[in-house]
Amino acid sequence: MPNSRSESGRSAGAHPAGAARAGGRPYDLAVVGAGPAGLAAAVTAADLGLRVALVDAGARIGGQYYRHPAPELGAARPERLHHGWSAFAGLRERLAAHAGVDHLAGHHVWAAERGPVWRLHTTHGPEAADRTTVEAGAVLLATGAYERQLPFPGWTLPGVVTAGGAQAMLKSGLVLPGRRIVVAGSGPLLLAAASSLVHAGAEVPAVVEATDYLGYAKGLPTLLGNPAKLVEGARHGATLLRHRVRLRRSGAVVEAHGTDRVTAVTVARLDGDWRPVPGTERRIACDAVAVGHGLVPQIELATELGAATRTTPDGAVALAVDAEQRTSLDGLFAAGETCGVGGADLALAEGVLAAYAVAGRPAPRGAVVRRDRRRAFAELMAAAHVPGAGWTGWLTPETDVCRCEEVPVARIREAVEELGAGDARTVKLLTRAGMGWCQGRMCGAAVACLSGGPEGRADSRPLSCPVPLAQLAEPPA
Amino acid sequence: MGRNPIDLVGAEPGPARTVLFDGRPVPALPGQTIAAALWAAGVLAWRTTRDGGRPRGAFCGIGQCFDCLATVNGRPNRRTCLEPAEDGDTVTTQEGHGHAELAI
Ligand code: FES
Questions:
Q1: Which residue of B has its CA nearest to A438?
Q2: What pLDDT was estimated at residue A365?
Q3: Which of A309, A345, A453, B75 is the most exposed place for a label (fewest CB within 10 A)?
Q4: What stretches of A57-202 adopt beta strand conformation (E)?
């Protein structure tokens, strides 16, 4: 479904199978991803005189964070479901006014190719001709992140959704998965999700957070350097209080109940290692569960090319960048969650810095300070929410770990204990865990943990999203 | 104060379209995806799994998990969380790998 509709008012739309360039020459910069980091980078680079292609899989700019209803829904006050909407509104206006940026909406980049110029291969529909190659002198990866999930018995029941998914469906489709929604997992996204759900009319009987929040206390100076983050946290807290939402620290949903859909959950207290404490179980009736354990950077396009990575304090793999947002590959830059999950403010600052670096101009001091402070906060946050090893204590042998291939815990343990698998890759070959449609995006973290292999290993995939065979079979444009 | 998402953001969509889900009409607001229309109608499952025949619906909401697959207008394996709902779309619960009728 090629989609050339764009709110930016300016759109390069769907190209016939061929190359996308700026006036016959490669673009100066191709930005992959139109969320906070990508938008900030694209308009800043254009301000600095560069010709920019803004390539994004979504129909509308904004990414997941600034996800908003389609114009046809006629939302007069979309900002009610957002924090920092004015920053987005500003970027959207600048983008619409800028002739220097071509927005390629609905274009999924499935591979990046290095050479004298960078070539990004994109697909925008099912037909052989629905493809475009974007050529550019430099590439900025601003592809964001997806959620980390830790399985629990019943997590495949309809009505159990990801915390980010509940947010996404609410922000774009104005719908809720149920009326009474338990929010569970770990990380700051939970509070944001719970507060938008209650704003939108859901009842949230509990927010169940696995950590005790004490991790933040270790970073007092970092906290004090980020007052905006404290205000944001306090605002969510006030919303939850006002709606009588109970925040349970050091707890987890250890089972979801129901046959065709979720009807209740069991929550339990966790010890410091995230092991469920026997005898502390409580049942809570609900018709939906929004669950997530933080975010994982989405970086396949770069790791496939061999870009250097680093392991963040919560065990995730992020792209390693220098002070100017350069990756280890010449001409490849990264900004936002791809460099380690840290939220929209950090992404905006990094996007600006990357644009200056690509343009070869000295970075504005303010953006550097903001980036450094927010990055320090991101590292503190990651350390505070690192999953404890004891979470496997709530699994049963029948719990499906891989949702796509329906591989239960027992089969993975068999591969490890009886067949001698020592890492996620071997487990995958023996059990098919991670070989299904989602390519391990939902089960990767759990499989790695259960296989006892090295954590935080970078995924590498020759294709970063599904591509019709007919497009692969075509000779290069 | 808005106690549903539509009122919260002051949405004034045009008239709803109708999609047929397993033969039953389900309203879809213009701009909603098929998954969103099904959620609004209280439907949470529209696929059964290949091995266990277990019900599934939307999980990630952003095109990553492939749990929301359904047959849309005769085409199997469509990610309904990404697919805009158009008037008259037929959506059918997808069983197994979605290619049953192709006998492969
Ligand atoms: S809900 Fe995950 S792909 Fe649609």
A1: B65
A2: 96
A3: B75
A4: 101-104, 108-113, 118-123, 131-141, 145-147, 160-162, 181-186
pLDDT tops 60 at residue A456 = no
Q: Which of residues 53-82 of A touch B (CB under 8 A)?
A: 57, 59, 64, 69-78, 80-81
Residue A53 three-state SS? strand
Report the residue of B3, B26, B65 to disrupt the A interface, i.e. the one with the largest count of A CBs within 10 Å: B65
Of A74, A78, A161, the CB nearest to B12: A74
Tell me if B42 is assigned to some domain: yes
Summarised one tens digit per residue, pLDDT across range A231-265 is 888 888 888 888 889 899 999 999 999 999 999 99
**A86 Ramachandran zone, left/alpha/beta (phi>0; psi -120 to 50):** alpha
Question: Does residue B70 have its Cβ closer than 6 Å to ligand 1?
Answer: no
CA distance A291 to A395: 16
Residue A457, pLDDT score: 57
Q: What is the Cα A214 distance to its own chain's centre?
A: 25
Which residues of chain B have a CB within 8 Å of the CB of A160? Answer: 59
Q: Are A293 and A185 in contact (CB under 8 A)?
A: yes
Model-level ipTM above the cut of 0.90: yes
Smallest Cα distance from A23 to chain B, Å: 32
> What confidence category does residue B99 fall into, taking pLDDT thresholds of 50, 70 and 90?
low
Residue B28 domain-assigned (yes or no): yes
Range list of β-strands (E), A56-195:
101-104, 108-113, 118-123, 131-141, 145-147, 160-162, 181-186
Quote the DSSP letter at residue A25. Answer: B
Measure CA A48 to chain center: 29
pLDDT value of residue A7: 47
Domain containing B75 equals: 15-91
How much is the pLDDT for A225?
85
Q: How many domains does chain B have?
A: 1
- How many whole angstroms separate alpha carbon A388 and alpha carbon A303? 27
The β-bridge relationship of strands A282-285 and A262-269 is antiparallel
Rounded to an integer, the average pLDDT of A32-58 is 97
The answer as to whether B97 is a domain residue is no
Question: Two tokens at A284?
Answer: 């809570």
DSSP states along A215-258: GGGGGHHHHHT-HHHHHHHHHHHHHHHHTT-EEESSEEEEEEEE
* B47 part of a folded domain: yes
Domain of B39, CATH number, reads 3.10.20.440
Mean pLDDT of chain A: 90
- Note the pLDDT of residue B1: 46
